[in-house]
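Below is how a single chain appears once it has passed through the pipeline. First comes the sequence as given, then the structure the pipeline wrote out for it. We keep one example in the README because the format questions we get most often are answered faster by looking than by reading.
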Amino acid sequence: MNIIAQCCGLLILFVILYFSLTTKPLKLKTSKAFFIMIAFAIVCIVLDILSVFVITNSHLFSKTFVDIICKLYLVALVSTAYSTLDYIYCDIYARTALRRKKALRQGSIFMIAEVIIMIVPIEWVHEGRYVYSEGPANYVTYAICLYCMWKIIHLVFKNWNNMNTRRRNAVTMWVMLWVVAAAVQFFVKWLLLVSYAGAIGVFVIYLMLENPDSYIDKRTGFFNQKGFEEYIKTMYAENKKFSVYLIVVEDLSDLKEGNLSEADKKRQEEFVAFLNKLPGTMRFCDSDDQIMLVFDDNEHGKAGRERLDAEIHEQWGKEYSIYAKAEYFYVPDGSFTNDVYSFMKLLRYARQNNNDDLRRRIVTIDRKIFDDMVSESVVEALIVDAISNGRIEIYYQPIYSTDKKRFTSAEALVRIRDEEGTIVPPAKFIGVAEENGMIIKLGELIFEKVCEFISSDSFEELGLDYVEINLSVVQCCYRHLASDYKRIMKKYNVDPSKINLEITESASIEGKNLLIKNMQDLIDYGVEFSLDDFGTGQSNLNYIAEMPVDIVKFDRDMTKSYFENDKAQYVMDAAMSMIKGMKLEIVSEGIETPEQYETMKDLGIDYIQGYYFSKPLPQEEFVQFLIAENNKQKMS
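Resulting structure:
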């Protein structure tokens, strides 16, 4: 019965070995360690079968020979256990040097144990059809294997969140199989299960992790995204230089789905075949139609790029349409980053933030792009930390009514403090927040803080009609903007007429239908809108006519130009005439001198905003400023 079980285990291992050797290898460090594990497991089962044979036929061999065979089986068992430990090291310790140091230290312990096994006595028993060994050599084997199991379990739990989840689960299952098999065999000595359980454990790891076919993209025959990440991780671990050529092909997924015409399908297949013939490169493809070509050093990368550039322009840029449907990126040196996650982020960042016509040239992802990504990541972390730790502040800049001759409103402006308490300029973080979508959370927080201020007793004393709050392009196109803002106003019992939301001209262009829907929903609730920064970008009075706004704000640059350029005066006068004709009010930003104020007032500008009255102030200072101004008003 035992021989049958061992033979089945041996057959399983040979099948795994066959598929491992005949499938295109990815050459990962874990794959190499797994191959060694298979080899030791095979040797272990062979020696197990051989030990049963020589014990059964002990009359044909000397006692010393039988002892040696039985002890070699125990040594192979220990080596199999150690190979599993080394497999775990490959996953946990990314850097090869550290892994080797750990493996060498543990390897010394196992080698000493193996020497002891070969020295101490062993006993073997043959009772009818039951064959097994026992004695000191077995006890040393049990002890060192239990130590190995404990070490593996300790490493798994210690590095639970850092390990590959599937590898963690597979190894845990393998350890449980071995522990149960060893416990059964310890008490039922003739039931030889340990080496068979080891074979089953290797099979589990193969199915869950080390099946080479799991790294293959079925459409192209290239390695897939999972393989790419594992391969790049290995390159970093072994401190190897590498370059990457990224090709984004729009219709690549259609190869599998069958959506291409026969002619297009043929061109796509020819393109894949062309890439397959490139020497000295590893080819990968992901589900987003990205083809990644990895060169194993910078020199190969440089030569590979030159050939790719020439071939693509000659073969795929003229007669075929594939070049017109692709984007190209080149990373000359992967050492810009320190790990695979940063590298993947760099590729995504370069694609998302490069505004050039990518279909007309190859974009080199250089140190500058990496530094920009790092800077943006720092700002992202700053925004998240500021939101989490309450370092978002609202400043208010008063707005003066030329008709009522007092301050009737204010613009709310966001400020962030860093950990040292220093104010971070909005220009540094607003763009980043818009780019990564954090502006939705940040904008909601700003709106809530303003509503909280409006609902306070101190706001009632100021005599303000409303507060202006900026909306970014991203916020304007956010589907739940109206419902979220109405919920916040209800929470603080804020009169909607106290809120004026500022949109920009660009916001009225992008996502126009959703923007107008949000606006109309909030207008029906009682909120009013302003068109901010009129005079920047592609100014068009049609925007004002189409947008349901009550106020138009002249950008500070437009105001400044009025005092410096005669032509700008005619443009602004004409704009004012048409805006007034539409029964809308006007705010002029950037007023800094008495002369500018008097001129704007004489022109009929409704509201004045700028440093002439006050810079943006923290909430408490703003309250004190307005109280003082109101008192002056009463005294005069």
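The chain is about 60% helix and 15% strand.

See the next section for the split statistics.
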